[in-house]
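Appendix B, record 7
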Amino acid sequence: MVLNVSSPEPKLGQIFTRRWVAETLLDLAGYTVSQPLESMTVVEPAVGEGAFLAPILQRLLDRALGRGVRLASLSEAVRAYELDHEKVLLSRRLCVEALELAGMEPDAAVAMAQQWVQEQDYLLAADTVPVDIVVGNPPYIRYDDLKSGQFALYQTKWKTLTGRGDIYVGFWEKALASLKPGGRVAFICADRWMRNNYGSRLREVVGERYGVRVVWSMHDVDAFHCKVSSYPAITVIANESQGPVAVAETSAEFGSRSAEELSRWSLGRGRRKEGAGYRADRLSHWYTGRGLWPTGSPKRLALLDSLSGLPTIEESGVTVGIGLASGADASYVVDTAPVEPDRLLPMATRLSIGPHGLEWAGEHLVNPWGPDGSLVSLADYPRLDEYLSNSAGVASRHVAKKNPDRWHRTIDRVIPGLAKRSKLLIPDMRSHVQPYLDEQGLYPHHNFYWLISDVWDLRVLGGLLLSDVAEAFVEAYCVRMRGGTLRLQAQYLRTIRLPHADKICTETAHELRLAFAHRDRARASAAARVAYGLESEQELAS
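Structure tokens (predicted):
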């Protein structure tokens, strides 16, 4: 029996999954005709246009017909949820057609379909009976895009919904909470919850109560019927203790045949595996707590795990921060302005990166902050007052409306003394981690991350950060954008682990300084391997 459905235009949050991807998730979840599907309950929490429902029905009914199971006994076998009325009707029609094809009377098929497919919000549905499998592609909706009051309502039920994230986090929490012992959740969705702050509570819940079984990165795979800007992963988590994890990296050539092959391997016990569009390995453990989860080749993950005993960059005596956001750069970040001279602070911006390193491009911050870190009084600075009052967009900013008595502030405050300190500046978007030394008294713009230390020789530290060893940590947590650009965040830089500064020998330190001075990444990487006690270049292959 083959079931097909049409693919209507998606609405907010709807990303339609290709059939082979849905089949793969069902395989990984253990929803196959070799299992007693007639006595199991499978849940599809956001049925959409039926990408998962169709193969679920096919497998369930093939099993029932092959084993002589009464169709009427399958009333608890499927639970599907959907808010879009048209798609509810579509999904129920799909169920009716499948049941009638299997031999059920029309009226009974309609009743069964209505029981299987509920026009409800999965996150609010009051279902209490434990289930065996939850599978699907949860909706992609940012909290900010929800209707007024809806997010607060969700938060009353699902405590993992924090920060500025996406509601699929709540889908994970509810799905996991609904599982019977040994049950599995298999989702394809954005993997950013694994490596962003808003996923911290969910990571904590998983680490405390569940076992991660499969993590396949699918960033470049054509897994959906439309282009998506998210970075999806296939992830399977079980209601059982943690054990080995099948981890895979895929590329654009990964497709249905590769998925079948990789699924068989993932469900087995073999070690390293490579095929068309993928490479995989089986890790002996997974990560616990709220900390970020890394990604990358299993070989790289194993290497980073071997360095986990070293201190993080901040534990080693380095402070990491991000530069200043003004909220109105056209007014605040300028070559010059008719304000009091001491209100102009030399600033490092993207224009400051030249062929020979960091070179001030003549840009200033119109600075409303005093040397003690407090906001200056405009009564003391009439020229600053006049300039900002006549600058378009300054008074209309959210930060200005929120604090009308402090309307002239930048979004971020100027940190006292930071400009005068020697510091490393790292642009937020580059093909590699690129640290630059600032000894010119510049204040960093928000497209730079800054690093200061009273422990490290900044040139030695710069050499380490320039290396592929340090970059391996960053790449394990952030993603490369289309074109190979790293999109950095401070939280990713903070995952870097460093050798102890006082244990780096004089010769290696010298090599790191020279490599940093000449922007020589290969030389920096070779010296860094010595500093970290690594032996092989191949260990860092991504």
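Remarks on this record: The CA atoms of residues 369 and 376 lie 5 Å apart. The chain has three domains: 19-293, 305-324+421-542, 330-349+360-413.
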